[in-house]
Amino acid sequence: MSLLQSALTRLEEAARVAGVSPETLLILQNPEREIGVHIPVRMDDGTLRKFRGFRVQWSSARGPYKGGIRYAPTVDLDEVQSLALWMTIKCAVADIPLGGGKGGVEVDPKKLSHAELERLTRGFARAIAPVIGPDRDIPAPDVGTSGETMRWIADEYGKIVGRPEPAVVTGKPLNAGGSAGREAATGQGGLYILQALQERLGKSAEETTIAVQGFGNVGYHFARLARAAGHRVIAVSDSRGGVAVNSGSLEPEALMEGKKATGELPMPPQGKRVTNAELLEISCDVLVPAGVENQITEENAGRIKARLVLELANGPTTPEADAILEKRGVTVVPDVLANSGGVIVSYFEWLQNREGRVWEEREVNERLRQTILAALKAMQKLKEEKKTSFRTAAYAVALTRLEEALRG
Ligand code: GLU
Prior knowledge:
A 7-stranded mixed beta sheet has the order 9-8-7-6-10-11-12. Strands 1-2-4-3-5 form a 5-stranded mixed beta sheet. It is of the alpha/beta class. Helices cover 46% and strands 18% of the residues.
């Protein structure tokens, strides 16, 4: 099954549970617009290469399209479509007045120089400029992109329209119109959800063990904040592999320092190396996939030992794995809720840019906490009413809100 097919299967199931009309489902089954572009880039050695890029605008029923831009060698239309649909659901679950979209470029950013990446990004910005804008479609970072990528897009877009237009993208660096708290927001939102669900685990934060797969922006900040809140982070991994401890906790900040210095996660005191596959199956209370999609599958779901899976990546669990985990009593907090902290603070950044105001980090985090916990509550209410999984309940909350918007 392709990624999009599995996303649509979940949408259809939730539509039945939510009782939305066949017409609502029909409208939400396809993107409103999708564009494919070819970006010629002058490489440092003087040759010209072309890169394939996409922007998919799934739904504007609730507001301008919103969603990240991914740079990865795996990017194709199927992946970007799925991510755009998930953004539509995510923004509706969070109840922020934005629609869903996503972009991507088929490229391994690690293989390009800084200058080549800048030229590629500016080329992509020119290619999608006619369909983005603060009232139209607002990109943000995703896997393989960063605040700097957003700064280049905002700058290029500003040149095209002839005025500064920082609200065209979010996730910008602080000195380019970014928001306090945005970089850590996905991890912070995930921690608020975990803290709200702590009771389900029947143990204190200090007793709770966490394994984090993915040590990029999202995984790192989540691990750092969870550790600071007293949790035991017993394993983390990145694309090259992971490290774990049998007792005590890893120190995410020290791990990041080591990783920055050598490119690899350093061996912690009394630690051991683990593979990504081993990390997923490690004995822990909470498993946090924070990398890419399709990590928990039919093949390994039976061996997951965590009691709670907090999906900070988009699409880490396949529908087949979902069914296995549910049967085994493992709670899965779905991506569209668990990782919505990023887009929630993106919304705050957009608001600040448009109002010409700057919020303090404390205010950003407090509003994030309120927004994400309200989403959790709405999902839990529907879950109890319909006796369904967290994922289906989250999709159903979103579908009900989307239907209201579509009816006008
Ligand atoms: N790429 C992030 C996501 O998948 C953030 C999107 C945004 O802030 O627009 O949720």
